[in-house]
Amino acid sequence: MPPQPSRLPNVKEASAVSMPFYVSPEQAMRDKADYARKGIARGRSCVALQYAGGILMVAPNPSSALHKISEIYDRIAFAAVGRYNEYENLRKAGVTYADITGYQFDRHDVTARGIANWYAQTLGTIFTESNKPFEVEIVVAEVGARPGDDQIYRITFDGSVTDEPGFVAFGGQADQVSAALKDRYSEGMTLSEAFAAALAALSAPGNGERTEFAPSQLEVAVLDRARDHRTFRRIRAARLEELLQETRPAPAPAPAAEPEPESADSAPADGTPADSAPADRTPAGGTPADGTPGTTTPSGPSSPADTEPPTGPAPGSSDRGTGLGGGPPSSPL
C-alpha cells in the first residue's frame, strides 16, 4: 500500500486584535465640556443678587414641587440649573456635608466657601473620571451680618469655582442675562428694586420665549439678614403678587373728554336759549313755585293809564278785588 500522508496538527488561528481608537486628553475634555454646556443651555437662566436686606434668588420654574432653590444650612442657600436628578443628588450631599461638619466642629464652621470647595472637588472628579459629566451649574450663597460679609460662589460642571460679588446669572443664556442685570444692578437696593432688576434681566431677549411671568411661573427665595438662626425663606402667593405689581409700570392716565358742541335740536323752537328765561316770570293765571298767586305782566309798553286803578267794576263782576280796597287786580279775560 502506498504510504498515507501524515495529518497536519490542528493549528488554532490567532484572533485579530482590535486597536482602541486613540483620543487625546485635550479632545476628550473638550467633548465633555461641549456636551455639558449644550445640556445646560437648553434650560433657562437663574439669578442671585444682593440687596440691602440680604440676598435674593429668582428662577423661572413652573413646578411647585421640584425646586431649583433650597436651603443648605442656617445662613446658606443653594441654587442650581440643569438636570434635576443630578443637582438634587448634589444638594442632598451638600446638606449632609454641612450637617456633619456642624456636628463635629461648630455651626459657625459651616461656610459657603467650604461647601463650594466641596462641590468643586466632587464635580471635578466626576468630570475627569466619568464618561458623562454632570449637566449642572450651582450657586452657593451665604448672608452675613453686614452687606460686606455676603458671599456668592458659582460652581460649573467641571469643578471651577468663581467668587461673584454683587450678582450672578447662571444657566441658559447667562451672558445676555448677566449683561442686562449689570445695567440695572446697584448697591443698597430694596427688595422691590432688586426683584424688578432680576425680572427685567430674566426677560432679556434670548432667554426663552416668555417675557412676562405670572406668580405660578417663578420661584423666589431670600436670605433675610434680619432673621435669627435660619435666614432662608420663600416668597409665595400674596407677597409675590405684590412684588410683581410693583414692578409693572403704572397705566397712563386717560385723556380728558372734550365737551360736545350743542346741536341745533337742543335749542327752543322760538330761538331763545333754554337758560335765558327770567326765573321770576310766572305764566298768565299761574302760580309761582312759592305758592303765592302771581299777576300777569302786560306785553305792551307801560303808560300812565295802565298803572291807574279802574274806575268801576268790570261787566258781570262785583267791585271786590278791583284794587279799590288795596287787593290785587284781577286777571284779564
Number of strands: 10
Identify the overall geometry: elongated
Question: What is the makeup of the main sheet?
Answer: 5 strands, antiparallel
The spatial strand order of the largest sheet comes to: 8-1-2-9-10
Low-pLDDT residue spans: 276-280, 282-313, 315-333
Output mean pLDDT: 80
Return the structural class: alpha+beta
Tally of helical runs:
7
Radius of gyration: 46 Å
User: Please, what is the CATH homologous superfamily of the domain at 25-245?
Assistant: Aminohydrolase, N-terminal nucleophile (Ntn) domain
Distance between the termini: 179 Å
Which class of the domain at 25-245 in CATH terms?
A: Alpha Beta
What CATH architecture of the domain at 25-245 do you see?
4-Layer Sandwich
Order of helices and strands: HEEEEHHEEEEHHEEHH
What is the CATH topology of the domain at 25-245?
Answer: Glutamine Phosphoribosylpyrophosphate, subunit 1, domain 1
Portion of residues in beta strands equals 15-25%
Helix content range: 25-40%
